[in-house]
Design brief:
- By secondary structure, the protein is of the alpha+beta class.
- The protein has a domain of about 45 residues.
- About 20% of the residues lie in helices and about 15% in strands.
- The chain is built from two helices and four strands; from the N terminus they run αββββα.
- The chain has a two-stranded antiparallel sheet with strand order 1-4. Strands 2-3 form a two-stranded antiparallel sheet.
- Strand 2 and strand 3 form a beta hairpin.
- The longest helix is centred in the N-terminal third of the chain and has 7 residues.
- It is globular, with a radius of gyration of 13 Å.
- The termini are far apart.
Amino acid sequence: MAAVHDLLGATGIELDSSYGPVLIDPKLGRYVVRGTATPEARSKAEQIPGIRFFADTRQQPLSR
């Protein structure tokens, strides 16, 4: 996780240290991490080659 912090540290993204990095493609060396970002932080991070963002919708239990 330290390498991810080093990579994204200057962008302003707040990483969730309890999640990841999770290896999703060993052949390509692709990992997933979870974090939150302002639009400005996201814009900075998207300038880094290989960085992509995907929506992570918060899940809540159904009411009964």
